[in-house]
Design brief:
Belongs to the glycosyltransferase 22 family. By secondary structure, the protein is mainly α. The protein has one domain. The mean pLDDT is 75. The N and C termini lie far apart (51 Å). Helix 6 packs parallel to helix 9. The longest helix has 46 residues.
Amino acid sequence: MQINNSTSFYSSLFISGLIVLIYLLSCPYNKVEESFNIQAIHDIVYHRNNISQYDHMEFSGPVPRTFLGPLFLALPWLFLPPIIPKATLQFIGELCSCNRIIYVVRAVLGLLLLHAMGKLGSAFRERLRLLFCSRFLLITYTQFHLAFYSTRTLPNIFALITVISHIYRLGALRTTLEKNICAFRKKCVYHLSLCACCSIL
């Protein structure tokens, strides 16, 4: 039964990822709200340290925004040049034109959210069952909104990944804390009963 449950969990992860990929490939264009982050990722990848060339120096926009989300998504491109040979990087550069890099960045963002959702689903494993995790993922990702927006570089998606990861960690911390409190309580009861037995003797 455990093998079937874990297989259904991984198959639901695969199906959820496939749904995200279908939405990513069928609707690749930007909404207005995500254009800031896409442009920031483009500037970080292509202009790197040349901040004067960043589009946001000329068109800063009415609302101050952060570059943390785009910087996090652009990190692989910043660390690849010292590791990978130059000829390989040129080949990757030819494959990843400006249009294709959007697909890669959005796929990474969708995988990060899917990973966070999988972790959140697995946090329920101790209290419920592993089958709940797979049903949780399937119900969540077969609905339109999360599957579609999981690959969109909106500030809310960056925040959602962070919040879900913290909720998972908080649940794991709470479970550990509950186990420690139960162990402490059992030791106290053991010591109290031992003291009671010693006082009777």
